[in-house]
Amino acid sequence: WHLRRKKSIGGAAQTAAQYEDSVEDELEMATVRHRPEALELLEAQSKFTKKELQILYRGFKNECPSGVVNEETFKEIYSQFFPQGDSTTYAHFLFNAFDTDHNGAVSFEDFIKGLSILLRGTVQEKLNWAFNLYDINKDGYITKEEMLDIMKAIYDMMGKCTYPVLKEDAPRQHVETFFQKMDKNKDGVVTIDEFIESCQKDENIMRSMQLFENVI
């Protein structure tokens, strides 16, 4: 009887603790300005488990108590990872890629959907996401200028200590090489089909894309 009673008390305590955690999570979600979608829905829309989403949400809420992150906060957080360079411009482009509805804020849902593709998406999904990043004005094409803007931003972010002997025109040379390979019909722009086909066929480009994932 004593053993059963101890087990019963232990089980009740565990249930109470779980309930308390659940209530705490609900209260946390209710107190932020932007209430995220149910974790079950996000679990279905992403490649993360419910437990992973709970951990990610706590981290997101710690950095962004309001439930959404604006561009300035995003830049501040991102700069912590690249203290050796200037990540401001690249963070601006990255923010716009995460801000899929272009309302000037990245919600937890926006963050999770983007992160899910970058970490666990198929090659096709990752390349689609990368194309969207390079397509700065979102007109469905990548121009040489857009590619150069992104490339310069990456070089700035990595800093001189990473590329100490890099020539000033290195980003432009990099872009010229890539653009010649990608712009199949030589019309001055790269379509999403040209982009994906070039990346999948060229090992050098694909290797650069994997390096690019690490930068993200």
From TrEMBL:
GO terms for cellular component: peroxisome; voltage-gated potassium channel complex. Keywords: Calcium, Cell membrane, Cytoplasm, Ion channel, Ion transport, Membrane, Metal-binding, Peroxisome, Phosphoprotein, Potassium, Potassium channel, Potassium transport, Repeat, Transport, Voltage-gated channel. It comes from the Eukaryota. Gene3D superfamilies: EF-hand. GO terms for biological process: regulation of potassium ion transmembrane transport. It is a peripheral membrane protein. Its main location: membrane. GO terms for molecular function: calcium ion binding; potassium channel activity; potassium channel regulator activity. It is found in: Cell membrane; Cytoplasm; Peroxisome. Residues 86-121, 122-157, 170-205 form the EF-hand domain. SUPFAM superfamilies: EF-hand. The gene is KCNIP4. This is Kv channel-interacting protein 4. Pfam families: EF-hand_7, EF-hand_8. Belongs to the recoverin family.
